[in-house]
Write a structure and sequence with these properties.
CATH class of the largest domain: Alpha Beta
Strand content: 25-35%
Largest sheet: 9 strands, mixed
Radius of gyration: 41 Å
Number of domains: 5
Shape: globular
Number of strands: 71
Distance between the termini: 135 Å
Pfam family, one: Phage-tail_3
Protein name: Host specificity protein
Number of helices: 24
Length: about 1300
């Protein structure tokens, strides 16, 4: 019996697609699906599968395979739709052949693939990441073209070349990629498994968005589209502003995605920050700051003539900078160009951040013990804030404080030198200096609009002794100066929503000031800027009389834009707010309530403004001209937090004293409420959208445009740091956690709102009559990998998020469960024959579910399948329901949804059946009732019509929590670009190594992290590069951190030691036997420019990466001359462990300065990692070694016999040989003999000896010298004299 009933119900529930009126679909549908019910009654585990989750993972090449559909953002495996044979590339390298040895030729083969990979149904907006065999690939290293799948796309040129003109399909309607000459070595010379992150926005927000702000305004190079390198150590770089693999820089990746997602985007406001350091206007300095005083970077940071070392640093918080630094001038100019290159107008938005840390000890204008930490700029005031006892407001001192804040910098104090803005005005860090500096930046970059300030709420209401507003006057002067710099730009001031319309002192005077009207009326101001964070809801959980069905209700939010709080009524106190005790906003005396209504933009804009004194209007209006200038919403935003529309100006940032939740918020994340808030505003102000009213945004009779310019509604905000690197990379940025509940649109655009998702599925099946306005949920994405019925998809979705649907007058109507509330109470029932008034049925325990396991796609883990489970407490052997859906969800979001499914499964098991009288014939499927005598709320699922109506209803769950829009941020695994660092290249002029010949002492060693292998070439005068060496092993290189003094030659030096710092690698001690066997050989650059070759026995690490080397075997290889010069701190150190390579210099190049290029293998000559150095080396290889054992034998008559033993630079380590090889073309020596008094005799000899007679000595020196200074050098007929051996001999008495 149960099976028959459930099967019948299942048929009815599934037939809403054109079926009978009584059909309903909801979470229950998943448990009422025909014969599957029979198995569920007897199984321990129930399995529910909608569109397949697994099939999205593997790339195929099947003919006739299904085409995936993506909604929102999801990862999709590709399908090969076209390919060619692999291309083979052969490279032969000649190795060896020195010294008569036979040469070896090594041939390597590389393979490249041309392949087109179909992704999904188009059109889609963009591709973010691409994975090959599960690893993300760096798109800068491959040639790939993306086709979005629109109906206008043309054939790919490569396919057309290969297939022939006119024979290549354009694959219209299919999004696909074409890889051209994809290197296959990394994947075993095969086409790898390709998967892509596809972005297909389906929401109305993306369609309506026309202007947005770009942050962070504090990021030294974050706004620069040009990649900037930082050298962490010699041979190790990082890219400061490229932390992703799908763009040339963070900014480029971010704005390319933004433009792709928002087709109507016209304008971007670029936020650029300086820092204030005090809430007291008279002592506040405003200046650019840096994160750190020292940074070795490829693009020097410069702002307003300051270099990094000259700038102040931002405060630190937990050992890290509290803010990013001020963006570098050159990067800002390039950022403006990048935005304009994408067809966007640019609003330049100077921004003042208050860098006031906790524990600052500064006197607080608001009476606290010190100034609040990292406060809002709108709190800058006088030493004692306006309205407090003892304030200087209304005195000359107030004007003086404002004058100090503004400063005296003038537009002419700045000069432009390329991308540098230099300053030569008064020595001050002032507001005028900041604004005029940034105006020159805007002019240099070509910005279209400029904001002269924002939300300086505390300053614009300060009055002087004459009752004037000096800061407003200062803004007027600034606007005039900016106009000189930017004659064609739109200029505005971005007033806070509580500031733009006027100032009403809370002193009981009844005064009304339109204090900003002189600014708004000034000729240099083109638009009235408003940062609009006005609340548009007053939602609270459990409200018995809510003003809308839910906080997400479009109509409810739209109605609050020009009504509700700050329009119709206000709360006098927080106690009144808690009790919902509202007071109407009125103006009994003058009948102009709009004067006190911040939300009433239309009345404020349309009417003349009359100030009041003592409650009485002045006779003359202000200078403001009604309807003369448009309103720009310079900021419009809402945090992605529960009940964000209640207080959209608030944000969560633990370091800031301003951090707070909106009124009545639980603090949970809610992406949907942010999306609905913004969409409601854009629809309210923009003609052509449903619900737009001309009265809400009227036309100006003076300039012909709308009051609020729809193209200048700047949504706050989109980040220059691309998703998911931001917010996931907390190793790079410390504010990532703020994203979760913040105002960011980054990572939220291209989500899949449930109503638009369901609509897209229905329209894909030809169904266009529906009402989905009651669906309140948002998913990251949804992907269907093959043909699926609308029923299957919607059953999966509705079960997942908690929604019900029914057909009403032929239209599908759907609602989220949290919206449903009892609309009526049924207390009268018809007495049907042999049936109770109300028949309640509850499923047996064996039919209920105790646990739900939900499988989903996790975006924080590269869309790998995730699982979340919810379980009832105190159940020993739970009956588990497995729900598998192709939905993109965060883990905690999935846990919440699993809990909702579990809660719903319990409610579905209880139904009520009853008959109602004819007076209730208006009941319809989908209504929610309360039943007299029976608790809870009941959803009508079936109505049988006869003499009376027999109604079947099921109990709704008590669970009413809104579906969250996300979860805690999962720290993402760093996917750093495959960066080739600028190498630590050491060019070494060494003695000829053992076993080598020619000029192989001219060597190069390279250290780098990561080590990519490096090609070394020299550049000739005609610009041709000649290959010199290929370095395939990283060397251990370093710098001395102490001096190395001269020591004994050829012996262990027990006295001297030195320390060396290594950026990478380590050094180790060896035994004495290993030392004398040639262990631990190194080269140290000496003060004379040469290298001492020495060995060390002991190596002790005294600090991370720093080693003390001792028991040194000095002056190896005949380098005693370099040893004698000593080595200084900072000198080069190289471990000679076989990692260096000979430079292949020729005889004609010995001693010549050559320009060398060290280039990472596989990189272009223009790559930023290529380094250039100039050296003249090779002479040590051919220089004869100094003789040894120089001796003098004095004869009785005074004659002297000199003798020595020659050394060889070639083959001298053979202990069995009677004589070492000569090593030179002929044996020849130069002997210099001096008497110590300046007289010298120079002779040459072909033997290792020389005799000097008594007569020759007297003839040369005039007498027999008491001492003789002898210098002997072996001569090379080609290369000249070698290293000199010197000695002094005393004549015997």
């Amino acid at each position: 019996m149960a099976t028959i009933v459930l099967q019948a119900a299942g048929a009815a529930l599934g037939s809403f697609l054109g079926g009978p009126i009584g059909a309903v679909i909801g979470r229950a549908a998943g448990a009422l699906a025909g014969s599957a019910i029979d198995r569920q009654l007897f199984a321990e585990t129930r399995r529910f599968e909608g569109p397949r989750l697994e099939t999205a993972r593997i790339m195929t090449a099947d003919e006739g395979g299904g085409i995936a559909r993506v909604y929102g953002t999801a990862r999709v495996a590709g399908q090969v739709i076209w390919t060619t044979r692999f291309e083979e590339e052969k490279e032969t390298e000649r190795q060896g052949g020195k010294g008569g040895e036979p040469a070896t030729e090594v041939t390597t083969y590389s393979y490249f693939g041309n392949v087109a990979v179909g992704l999904c149904e188009g059109p889609v907006a963009a591709i973010r990441r691409i994975w090959a065999d599960g690893e993300e690939i760096d798109l800068s290293e491959i040639d790939v073209r993306f086709y979005p799948g629109d109906e206008d796309q043309l054939p790919d040129p490569l396919i057309e070349v290969k297939q022939g003109a006119g024979n290549a399909p354009a694959y219209r309607g299919l999004a696909y990629l074409v890889f051209e000459r994809l290197p296959l070595e990394s994947w075993g010379n095969r086409i790898p498994q390709i998967a892509c992150e596809v972005l297909r926005p389906i929401g109305e927000l993306e369609e309506r968005l026309r202007a947005v702000t770009i942050i962070p305004g504090a990021s030294e190079h974050g706004l620069d589209p040009k990649p900037v390198r930082e050298r962490l150590a010699e041979g190790e770089d990082r890219l400061i502003n490229r932390n992703i693999l799908f763009g040339d820089s963070d900014l480029v990746a971010s704005i390319d995605e933004l433009v792709a997602l928002c087709p109507d985007l016209e304008r971007a406001a670029l936020v650029v920050s300086w820092f204030g350091d005090d809430l007291r206007a008279g002592t506040c300095r405003i200046r650019p700051k840096v994160e750190t005083a020292r940074r070795d970077e490829s693009e020097d940071w410069r702002v307003s003539g300051l270099r990094r070392g000259d700038a102040a640093t931002v405060s630190s918080l937990d050992g890290s900078p509290a803010y990013g630094g001020t963006p570098s001038d050159a990067g800002v100019i390039r950022a403006i160009a990048a935005l304009k290159d994408r067809g966007l107008k640019v609003t330049f938005y100077p921004f003042l951040l208050m860098d006031i840390p906790a524990g600052n000890g500064l006197p607080d204008p608001y009476g606290d013990t010190e100034q609040a930490a990292f406060p809002w700029r709108g709190r800058i005031s006088l030493d004692v804030a306006v309205g407090r006892a003892g304030s200087a407001d209304g005195t000359a001192a107030a004007r003086d404080a404002i004058a100090a804040f503004l400063g005296n910098a003038a537009p002419g104090d700045f000069t432009i030198d390329g991308s540098r803005i230099n300053y030569s005005g008064p020595a001050e860090w002032s507001y005028r200096r900041m604004i005029f500096h940034q105006a020159h930046l805007a002019a240099r970059g070509g910005a279209d609009a400029f904001v002269i300030g924002s939300e300086l709420h505390g300053l614009t209401r300060i009055r002087d002794e004459a009752g004037r507003f000096p800061f407003v006057e200062g803004l007027i002067a600034i606007a005039e100066g900016v106009r000189q710099i930017l004659p064609d730009a739109t200029i505005t001031y971005a007033a806070d929503w509580s500031e733009y319309f006027g100032y009403h002192p809370e002193d009981g005077s009844g005064d009304v000031f339109f204090n900003l009207d002189p600014l708004w009326a000034f000729s240099a101001i083109d638009a009235i800027g408003i940062d609009n964070y006005l609340p548009i809801a007053d939602w609270r959980d459990g409200d018995p009389e809510p003003e809308a069905p839910s906080i997400h209700d479009r109509a409810g939010l739209a109605a609050g834009i020009a009504a509700g709080e700050y329009f119709d009524w206000y709360y006098e106190s927080e106690a009144d707010r808690a009790e919902k005790q509202r007071k109407p906003i009125s103006d009994g005396a003058h009948g102009k309530p709009w004067v006190f209504r911040p939300k009433d933009l239309v009345s404020w804009w349309s009417n003349e403004h009359f100030e009041r004194r003592g409650g009485l209007e002045l006779a003359e209006p202000t200078a403001y001209v009604p309807m003369a200038k448009p309103l720009w919403l310079t900021e419009l935003g809402c945090p992605a937090i529960d009940k964000g529309p209640n207080q959209p100006n608030l944000f969560v940032d633990p370091k800031s004293s301003e951090s707070a939740f909106p009124h009545f918020s639980t603090g949970g994340r809610d992406d949907l409420v942010q999306r609905r808030f913004l969409a409601a505003h854009l629809g309210h102000w923009t003609p052509g959208h449903a619900g737009f009213s001309d009265a809400a945004n009227p036309l100006s009779p003076l300039y012909g445009g709308r009051m609020v310019d729809p193209a200048a509604i700047h949504l706050w905000t989109f980040d220059a740091r691309p998703f998911p690197a931001f917010p996931g990379r907390n190793d790079v940025w410390s504010d990532g956690e703020n994203w979760r509940l913040g105002h960011w649109l980054t990572g939220r655009l291209a989500d899949a709102p449930l109503d638009r998702l369901v609509a897209a599925i229905l329209e894909g099946h030809g169904i266009s009559d529906y009402d989905l306005t009651g669906l309140d949920a948002v998913l990251g994405g949804w992907v269907e990998t093959g043909p699926a019925s609308a029923r299957d998809s919607l059953e999966s979705l509705f079960q997942l998020v908690g929604a019900v649907g029914h057909v009403e007058d032929g239209r599908l109507v759907a609602h989220s469960l949290q919206r449903l509330r009892a609309g009526s109470a049924v207390t009268a029932f018809v007495d049907a024959d042999d049936e109770p008034y109300v028949e309640l049925r509850r499923a047996e325990a064996a039919e209920t579910v105790d646990a739900v396991a939900l499988s989903f796609l996790d975006p924080w883990r590269d869309y790998q399948a995730g699982s979340a489970e919810a379980m009832r407490a105190s159940v020993g052997s739970p009956r588990r329901q497995i729900v598998s859906v192709p939905a993109v969800l965060g883990e905690s979001e999935a846990i919440s949804l699993a809990a909702g499914i579990l809660a719903e499964s319990g409610a579905v098991s209880e139904t009520a059946s009853f008959a109602v009288p004819a007076s209730l014939l208006s009941l319809s499927v989908g209504d929610v009732l309360s039943l007299g005598g029976h608790g809870g709320e009941w959803l009508v699922t079936r109505i049988e019509t006869g003499l009376s109506q027999r109604v079947t209803a099921r109990r709704l769950p008590a669970w009413r929590g809104s579906v969250p829009g996300g979860d805690a941020i999962v720290t993402t695994t760093p996917t750093r670009p495959n960066l080739a660092s600028r190498p630590f290249a050491a060019f070494l002029d060494l003695p000829l190594p053992p076993g080598e010949s020619g000029f192989d002492g001219a060597r190069v060693a390279v250290g780098a992290s990561p080590f990519a292998g490096y090609e070394v070439a020299s550049l000739s005068n005609d610009g041709v590069l000649k290959p010199r060496a290929r370095v395939s092993r990283p060397a251990i290189l370093g710098r001395l951190t102490s001096d190395l003094l001269p020591g004994p030659e050829g012996r262990v030096d027990p006295a001297n030691a030195f320390t060396v710092s290594l950026p990478r690698g380590a050094l180790a001690s060896v035994s004495p036997a290993s030392l004398f066997a040639g262990g631990n050989v190194c080269a140290v650059e000496c003060a004379d420019g040469g290298f001492e070759v020495l060995q060390f026995e002991s190596a002790a690490e005294i600090a991370p990466g720093e080693f003390r080397l001792s028991r040194l075997l000095r002056a190896q290889g005949g380098t005693e001359d370099a040893m004698a010069a000593g080595a200084l701190t900072g000198a080069l150190f190289a471990l000679l462990d076989g990692s260096s390579e000979a430079l292949s210099v020729t005889a004609g190049e010995i001693g010549r300065v050559l320009d060398y290029r060290v280039q990472p293998l596989g990189r272009s000559r223009s790559d930023a990692a290529v380094v250039s150095q100039s050296h003249a080396i090779g002479a040590r290889s051919v220089r004869p070694l100094s003789p040894v054992h120089l001796s003098a034998d004095f004869a009785g008559d005074g004659a002297i016999s000199l003798a020595w033993i020659r050394r060889t630079r070639i083959g001298g380590d053979n202990w069995a040989a009677n004589e070492v090889p000569l090593g030179e073309e002929a044996e020849r020596y130069r002997v210099e003999i001096g008497d110590g008094a300046g007289s010298n005799l120079t002779v040459e000899t072909v033997e290792p000896r020389y005799n000097l007679s008594t007569a020759a000595q007297i003839d040369r020196f005039g007498a027999l010298p008491a001492a003789l200074d002898i210098a002997v050098a072996q001569l090379s007929p080609v290369w000249g004299a070698g290293t000199v051996r010197r000695a002094r001999f005393l004549r015997p008495l």
